[in-house]
Design goal:
Jelly Rolls; mainly beta; 2 helices; five-stranded antiparallel β-sheet; six-stranded antiparallel β-sheet; about 10% helix
Length: about 150
């Protein structure tokens, strides 16, 4: 996609592109070969399980609220105004345990096939199917930790 100059308003997507990903709302902000970004709204209790982007760096700028994170084996928390940096190949998971909605701006570089992935998992309700589809687009979800 070739980027055009302009402004995409808060809570709106470029070309009105909006996805529902397992109960979270993602608004497309940019999609070029070098960068892909999207604004998110995570309702309380929603999360992205631990996963890896083998070929993409990922960033999250916290617009409003707080995320609990699993980042490279550490448990961290980020809140409004913080920037989360997740280098390619580093396992990370994102959880809204705050009891309130969280707004954030995510971006990855290079873009890879994330737009196509989001197009394909939009409104898919089965997390197992989301994981299966994601693997086809360079996002590798990790198995749940063993209990005990």
């Amino acid at each position: 996609m070739t980027m055009t100059a302009g402004i995409t308003g808060a809570g709106k997507g470029v070309d009105e592109t909006v996805w529902n990903i397992l109960g979270q709302t993602y608004y497309l902000k940019s999609d070029t070969p070098t960068s892909f970004s999207f604004e998110t709204l995570f309702p309380p209790g929603t999360f992205v399980p631990p996963h890896i982007h083998p070929e993409q760096d990922e960033f999250i700028y916290m617009l409003d609220g707080a995320f609990d994170l699993m980042l490279a084996g550490s448990e961290l928390q980020a809140s409004t105004g913080d920037l989360i940096r997740m280098p390619m190949g580093l396992p990370h998971g994102i959880f809204n345990n705050s009891g309130s909605p969280v707004k954030a701006l995510f971006w990855v570089s290079p873009a890879g096939d994330l737009k196509t992935l989001f197009d394909n998992i939009h409104n898919v309700e089965d997390p197992g199917e989301v994981v299966r589809i994601a693997a086809q687009y360079g996002v590798d979800f990790l198995p749940p930790p063993e209990e005990g």
